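--- STAGE predict ---
source: upstream dedup step, 1 unique chain passed
mode: sequence only
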Amino acid sequence: MRWVLAVVTLLFLLPAPAHAASPLDLTSGFYVNPNSSPAVWARNNPGDARASRIQASIGSRPIARWFGNDPNIGSVVASYTGAADGNDKLPVLVAYNLPGRDACGGHSGGGAGSPAAYRTWISGFAAGIGTKPAVVVIEPDALGDFECMTQTQINERNAMLVYATQMFQQKAPNTYAYLDGGNAGWVAAATMASRLNAAGVRNVRGFSVNVSNYYTTSASASYGNAVVSALGGGPRFVIDTSRNANGSNGEWCNPAGRRLGVPAQAGGGAEMLLWVKTPGNSDGQCGIAPTVPAGQFSPAIAVRLIDGT
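--- STAGE serialize ---
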């Protein structure tokens, strides 16, 4: 019995396991990236009549930074989150490097060369954040693209996503990470809940909705809540409001008539409203920007989003 008492005494003396702190509580607001594509364009084109409007309406706002297949991902992420931390601000990052990404859309293809390469990359990404506060959206579109994939490819993708969630869980304790959960017009809520479960959503804070899309905040919140209900509660969700003020017209690739949504904030119908997609960055060579490649900034797109035209 003496050894049992010793073990019990030792357990009481051991420090309690660390719990992740809320990155919102650890910071004094969202980080504004001075080198976002709209901010850089406005800075480099001071003589253009559109520059001041783009900077005021977009470049000066907190916008997520997307990270792709950079061999130095750990140091790049560490530098970016360190700059935010030095200003007591909360950065929003997007991990976007799955092999075969954008399988159905096709405009943003690419990603890591293999599952092994992806695991190395995402491990470095999480380690680069470390204990600094951050918000991360994990792999937009990854769980909506299944109709263009074989079951073997789906299984392989799920394994990579589970690994990604584990890396943020283990290496970035003060990060709120969200697996992407598509949007209100894509995959049924119950189906998405099943996919999120298989991809490791229980390892992270929750999921994101409406990334790079246009559904209103209310429609996105209804969808997010339906997914949470199908999951049996637990995970939280965030909404991309970057371009959703006018809602969706059923098109996803540079549609006309869209408008900037509510800037980044806590609450508002979800855990957070975020500008995940950079307003003014093209969705692909389509819609109102048939010659602008995916991810490239267009001042013409930006102004149309400001004006809602």
